[in-house]
Specification:
The chain is α+β, with helices and mostly antiparallel strands and 206 residues long. The protein is 24% helix and 31% strand. The chain has 3 helices and 13 strands; from the N terminus they run H-H-H-E-E-E-E-E-E-E-E-E-E-E-E-E. The strands form 3 sheets. Strands 2-1-13-10-7-8 form a 6-stranded antiparallel β-sheet, with no helix packed on it. Strands 4-3-5-6-9 form a 5-stranded mixed β-sheet, with no helix packed on it. The protein has a two-stranded antiparallel sheet with strand order 11-12. Strand 7 and strand 8 form a beta hairpin. Helix 1 packs across helix 2.
């Protein structure tokens, strides 16, 4: 190797690792390369183990701590589309979640002070065939199901033409038809039962 090549070699090694350049002194190029390679290997091992120690020191979040598994994220929107009976509000939209998982169903009152006026976001209906406390609609966040339960109404609750037993939660499937009450005649007047098509879907967490 000429003098210029040796200067270039020494300069390169000095930039990469000054300690190696000082310790190598003279010697063949092969020997210098072996020393240089061994030093880089040791440095790589040191950095690798430092990264492993750092990674081990950082606690891994558990699934229950992850926002994706928060109970508050489970939200379902239940839509009641009026088919018969109280048609004053064509569609009701009820939002249920893990904490507020139940909504009452019953006969509305025209008295503002009672706080049970019919609205698009509740299940109070202006119908004489329904009891004041007629039923409840509930959301089970564990299995993501919606159920309906008659809580002792006078004229009953029906799901797809089958009368539901009292105080027994029954699963509602998307597209089912639920009927509250039965047709009632008062003299010449006829009051039909309140029937609704039920649709529900999970609502994305925001």
């Amino acid at each position: 190797m000429d003098h210029q090549g040796m200067l270039f070699e020494t300069s390169l090694i000095s930039r990469l690792n000054p300690k190696i350049a000082m310790g190598m002194g003279g010697g063949s190029l092969d020997l210098k390369l072996q020393i240089l390679s061994r030093s880089f290997g040791e440095a790589f091992d040191d950095h690798y183990h430092q990264l492993q120690d750092l990674r081990a020191s950082i606690p891994s979040p558990s699934l229950t701590d992850s926002p994706a598994f928060s109970a508050d994220d489970h939200i379902v929107q239940v839509t009641l589309t009026a088919l018969n009976g109280d048609l004053s509000i064509a569609e009701r939209s009820l939002t249920l979640n893990s904490k507020n998982n139940s909504i009452p169903v019953g006969r509305a009152s025209k008295s503002v002070t009672k706080g049970i006026l019919g609205a698009a976001d509740n299940a109070w209906f202006d119908s004489p065939v329904m009891s004041r406390n007629h039923a409840t609609i509930e959301f089970n966040s564990e299995d993501m199901t919606v159920t309906i339960q008659d809580i002792g109404s006078m004229h009953g609750t029906y799901l797809n033409d089958f009368e539901l037993p009292k105080d027994t939660p029954t699963v509602i499937n998307d597209g089912d038809v639920v009927v509250f009450g039965a047709e009632v005649r008062r003299g010449p007047e006829v009051f039909p039962a309140c029937s609704f098509r039920v649709n529900y879907k999970p609502v994305p967490y925001k």
